Every structure is written in structure tokens, then in C-alpha cells.
Amino acid sequence: MQLFDDHAFVLETRDLSDSDRVVVLFTREHGTKQGAARGAKRRFSRFAGQLQPLSLVKVQWSEKPERQLVRIRSLELVRSAQPLLEELEGILLACYLAETVAVFAADSDADPVLFRLVDSTVQALLDGVAADLAARYFEVWVLRLAGIFPPPTNCPNCFQPIVDRAVLPPTSESLLCPDCTSSATGLTIGPSPLDLLRAIHRRPLLELAQAAPATTDLRRIETLCAAIRRAFLQQELRSYRVMLECVQ
Question: What is the reported pTM?
Fold first, then answer.
């Protein structure tokens, strides 16, 4: 049995038994881990208040080779996500970001860039950055880090520069120039959302937040990222479906 210490984000908890929970963690040095938190459902559990989505914790766990579920020995809260969870909008967003990480992060393999993205996005939200902008920034970068959504600079078909318009064909994961596809059968991205996409790839979130992007541009990028994600995963994230249902 090996013993490990690391920093991690809490992504999900679910019942394991009458008194225990399974906790899904995204660790800085060891990727995602699923661990048994013994006694976590008890009234005076030592894990009380530490298992909220996107909370940053210092965790110690033990694991045995070839056993998927590790045993969580201790958790120490480093930064609470409670301020994000005081309203329904924040709860839905936290669950969506957490599920996105759980789907795209590698099991047991470190992903320091993704970890920094999660850390900076959560901190920006706690600092008051608009949830809409933070979510779109996070979506674009998760897809880029997954290798399926590069910056919209050149068409992957003809390699010509994408200037002021691009099209996402149905069930595709790549933006093409108008000459390589028909806008009648795809999602068209105009000059303003293209400029915002390029800014997201070049500039930090806090800098972008200084001049709030247009809501219409954010909606277009949300639609684009959702389409690319569905094409890649062949399904939609459950938390995203719930979020859409709640805002309608």
C-alpha cells in the first residue's frame, strides 16, 4: 500500500454506503482519483464542509495497485468554493465546471496546465468575474487542451487564414473557412465572436474581464463550444443539460 499527499479540487461526491461517500478528486500531481471517504455521511464527520464542488483541498490517501478506489486518509480545506454555491446559478455552474474536468482530465496522470486553468477560473469567480465570461473562457481552453479546438487562425482544410467568418459543419470539431464548407448547413461564427475567441487564446481571464464582452458574442461561443464538445464526446454533459433547463 502506497501513501500520497497532494492538492486537489473536489469534483463530485456520491453515496458508497450508509455512512461513507465516494469522492472524485482532480489532483495536481496524480490526475483524477476516486476515493472512499469513510464516515463522510455521519453528522460529525471529519470531512464535514470540505466536499463541496470546486473546493481546493490538501488530501492524503492510500492506494493499492490495481484497485480503482483509493482510501482518503485526511482532507484539509485550502480554499472554499462556498461563495459560488450560495445561489442556484453558482451551484449549476460549479457542477458544470466540475463535470467538465472529470470528463476531460486523465485518470492518474498529472495535467498541470488544466489544474492551473481550474485554479485560476475558480479564483476569478471568487474575485467577482462574471460567471458567463469565466465559463466561456474555461470551455474554450478545456477544448484546446484536449487537442480538439485550436485557435481560429487558419482553416485546417485549405490552410488559408480565417479572417472575419468561419463555419462549423454539422458533427464537426473544427472551424473551416467559408470556401471549404456551406454556411447553410453549419454554425456560422462572425467577426465579433471570432475576435473574442482569439482574445481568449491570447489574454488572461482577468484582463478580458476589464472590458465585458458582448452577451451575443458569449452566447455564440457557448453554442460553438457545446457543438464541438458533443461531436467529440458523442453526448452532452448532464450538468450542461440541467443548466440549460433551469435557465429556460
Answer: 0.92
